[in-house]
From TrEMBL:
Source superkingdom: Bacteria
Organism: Virgibacillus dokdonensis
Residues annotated as transmembrane: 20-47, 109-131, 138-159, 165-184, 204-224, 259-282, 319-342, 354-378, 390-408, 414-443, 464-487
Annotated keywords: Membrane, Transmembrane, Transmembrane helix
Keyword Cytoplasm: no
Pfam families associated with the record: TctA
The protein's name: Transporter
Signal sequence annotation: none
Occurrences of domain DUF112 (ranges): 20-439
């Protein structure tokens, strides 16, 4: 079957009655799962694997893919309204989304997030359709040295995520990296920093740290400032209408991050979380008013929301073309494919063109459904802010604890959640930024693994990092990302 015939057969599947129904079920379930702190698409897809057993593989994967990008689309809601990221890919959304909600612009923030998500997702799908087979070879070009350099760039960009002291930003990042090393060393099998506690052998879940540093820390401040800010955040939802100036501000970040997010999503092991952080960092560096980021910047909200949705489309390139999962969610999707009797890889494009193009074509419909679902619901979703403060605080704490417990069914993680809530609260009091902590924790494990793999390949020689032009270019970018912010701050002082 030729390329054009494959595309047409894919659209035929996507626009069939069965295809439309299962796309709708997937994106609807994904949206609501993404809104709830702690319930991510991984759990939902894992549950759907036995349910979809016996389905046509194309229809089953269409539904599961809908859950994936639907959860990323809907995950921004709790990040914006409650500062409690629904999934890891929407942590960066909270940086400017929640300040906008606190300014009485929750409706506008949700509308910006919905439109940005739609743009990023749609552009990502177009790029996926045009370049999927070709980009598979690009993804192969990234080996351990290139990944180490890429992670180093992201870590050294910590300065862009901080306001105030550069030293405090790097201290926060180092602490995050330290927590990433907790657990059994994957290479040697040696327990590290577990202090004899078996509960720490598997490491610390990302969600425990994210909800602690953001959601519970925010709850502590809500309780303390309950009298000062009684009528500030909950009674002013604001209008959903976006002005021409708002749309103008969104245009640049939405365009750039659609492409950048997709490219990052193509890289195996990257995914929506890293794409959202890098998108945020890039836009802050490009902005003429970087001081507005973290205080309710429209660009700061548009960038991560566009990038993470574009990355979800890009993540299907290594999954379908190479059989390599780009994230935890696509790893579960890979397992689902194998259970359904489909072998992803270079031959999938030729052997199963209907499945390959059917999944991609269904994403067009899914993104339209998501926009139609989310925009009309914004006035109702925003009313979460009208809930009385004591009840809201109780609900957020309950959802956080339930979400954390649902991952491991271990009460120890709930204690860890409370500990990180206190850490997050103290960090805010001492003005230590939380974003560098989170970014370092996310990238720490992957960076260490890439470094070890590189040194194993070169038998301990550092020359492997100098032999790759891609790695060398990324090292230069990493160096500049440290020197330039430090020089600027020194010049200003």
């Amino acid at each position: 079957m030729g390329g054009l015939e494959g595309v047409l057969s894919g659209f035929q599947v996507a626009f069939s009655v069965e295809g439309i129904i299962f796309v709708f079920i997937g994106v609807l379930a994904g949206t609501f799962i993404g809104m709830l702190p702690g319930l991510g698409p991984i759990s939902a897809i894992a549950v759907m694997i036995p349910i979809s057993y016996g389905f046509d593989p194309t229809i089953a994967l269409v539904m599961m893919a809908g859950v994936y990008y639907g959860a990323v689309f809907g995950g921004s809601t709790s990040s914006i309204l409650l500062n409690a990221p629904g999934i890891s890919g929407t942590v960066a959304t909270a940086f400017d989304g929640h300040p906008l909600a606190k300014q009485g612009k929750a409706g506008k923030a949700l509308a910006i997030a919905a439109i940005s998500s739609f743009i990023g997702g749609t552009v990502g799908i177009v790029l996926l359709m045009l370049f999927a087979p070709m980009l598979a070879s690009v993804a192969i070009a990234f080996g351990p040295p290139e990944y180490f350099a890429l992670m180093l760039v992201a870590l050294t960009a910590i300065a862009s995520l901080s306001e105030g002291s550069l030293v405090k930003a790097f201290i926060s990042g180092v602490i995050g990296f330290m927590f990433a090393t907790v657990g059994i060393d994957a290479q040697t099998g040696t327990p590290r920093f577990t202090f004899g506690m078996t509960n720490l052998l598997s490491g610390i879940e990302f969600l425990v740290i994210a909800l602690g540093l953001f959601a519970l820390a925010e709850i502590c401040f809500l309780i303390i400032n309950s009298f000062k800010e009684k009528n500030d955040i909950h009674q002013n939802i604001g209008s959903l209408k976006l002005t021409k100036s708002d749309l103008k501000e969104m245009k640049g970040p939405a365009t750039r991050q659609s492409f950048l997010g997709f490219i990052i999503g193509v890289l195996p092991g990257a995914g929506a979380t890293i794409a959202s952080f890098i998108g945020y960092i890039v836009e802050k560096k490009l902005s003429k008013r970087p001081e507005q980021f973290g205080k309710g910047s429209i660009k700061g909200l548009t960038a991560p929301e566009t990038a993470n949705n574009a990355a979800t489309s890009g993540a299907f390139v290594p999954l379908l073309s190479l059989g390599i999962p780009g994230s935890g969610t696509t790893a579960v999707l890979l397992g689902a494919l194998l259970v359904l009797g489909v072998q992803p890889g270079p031959l999938l494009f030729e052997d199963e063109p209907t499945l390959f193009w059917g999944v991609i074509a269904s994403m067009y419909i899914g993104n339209v459904f998501l926009l139609i679902l989310n925009l009309p619901l914004i006035p109702y979703i925003s009313k979460l802010l009208l809930i009385p403060r004591p009840l809201l605080i109780s609900l957020v704490i309950t959802f956080c604890m339930l979400g954390v417990y649902a991952i491991s069914f271990n009460t120890f993680d709930i204690y860890l959640l409370l500990i990180f809530g206190v850490i997050g609260f103290l960090m805010r009091l001492a003005r230590f930024p939380a974003p560098p902590f989170i970014l370092s924790f996310i990238l720490g494990g992957m960076m260490e693994q890439s470094l070890r793999q590189s040194l194993t390949i070169s038998e301990g020689g550092l020359g492997i990092f100098l032999e790759s032009p891609i790695a060398m270019a990324l090292f230069i970018v990493a160096l500049l990302s440290i020197v330039i912010p430090a020089f600027k701050k020194k010049t200003i002082t």
